[in-house]
Amino acid sequence: MKKRFSQWKFSYIAILAFIGGIIGNLIVSPDLTYILGALSGSLLLVVINLIYVIYTNRKLKSKKNTNT
């Protein structure tokens, strides 16, 4: 059985971390600053992942074009 690798793995982790951060924050001490911190950290991970995916896709396309 072959394992599939998703390029968006870090975005999934960022979304789960954001949801977990909100739930944990609401249970412990509800405060807007913690929610905004979790949001900004998650958005940073998503942007980094987006740049990585675009870079690898362009790299693969340029490699395919040079081989043909």
Question: What would you note in describing this structure?
Answer:
Helix content is 82%, strand content 0%. The chain contains 2 helices and no strands. The longest helix has 36 residues. The protein is elongated and about 55 Å long. The mean pLDDT is 84.
How are the elements arranged and paired?
Layout: H1 9-28, H2 32-67
Helix pairs in contact: 1-2
* Overall mean confidence score, pLDDT: 84
Please mark out the parts with pLDDT under 50 across 5 or more consecutive residues, or reply none: none
Quaternary class: single chain
What is the strand content?
under 5%
Order of helices and strands: HH
User: Radius of gyration over alpha carbons?
Assistant: 17 Å
Net shape: elongated
End-to-end distance? 31 Å
How many strands, which pairing sense, and closed or not: the largest β-sheet? none
Task: Assign the structural class, choosing from mainly alpha, mainly beta, alpha/beta, alpha+beta, or little secondary structure.
Answer: mainly alpha
| Number of extended strands | 0
